Amino acid sequence: MFYLVLVLVVSYTTKLWSQDDNQSSKVTNSNDATSYRIPLIGEEAPSFKAKSTNGTINFPGDFGHSWKVLFSHPKDFTPVCSTEIMELAHLQDQFDNLGVKLVVVSTDRLETHVQWKKALEELKLDNRGLVQIKFPFVDDENIAVSKRYGMIHSGTNSTRSVRGVFIIDPDNIIQAIYFYPMNVGRSTDELIRMITALQLTAREKVLTPVNWKNGNDVLVRTPPKIDGSSAEEAGYHSPAWYLWYKKSN
What we know:
alpha+beta, 249 residues, Glutaredoxin, 2 domains, 6 helices, three-stranded antiparallel beta sheet
């Protein structure tokens, strides 16, 4: 009789543990599916209000009718991210010339952001001298912003945002998205190339070919209508009937 009771108790306890594990798994999967969704290209950039090293900001509203880059990193005082932030700081004038506002976000608290920013402004990297960081570091300790932008990837870390980049146009529509692993630094050359290409294609209604750089020829969507001159004289050339290039302005 004792052994029968023991078997029943063990069986019932095992079943409870099994149910708890299943329920826990379901809750996690549900949160991943709903709370951490990545907003896609063509969608409106999720808004948020948060503390930052530049005071409380409302994103994207406080940044007006400008292009915006939301640049996330997992943790302050980490080597890869430190080099990235320093590079962004040295390129601030170039971003200003492009009409781009930079916003950096991580899940560290504001006090840590302040300390890291101070340390970076005292750092001479690559013998380029000191630089003042003008863009804000957003406090996302409660991971609310990281969730809204789908930057909590449970396969990597459940409490730290991944290293993401969102390029947002003046109408607050997401135009490009990048995600990078923790161990590889991002390319600011590619970031500026992408912004330049997005601005050009929006302004002139053209396309950019593979490996396009500022000043290179662009593509047109349909064959041009040319009156009274040759294609070359009008600034076009075509290696195939379905592929037309236009000289860059």
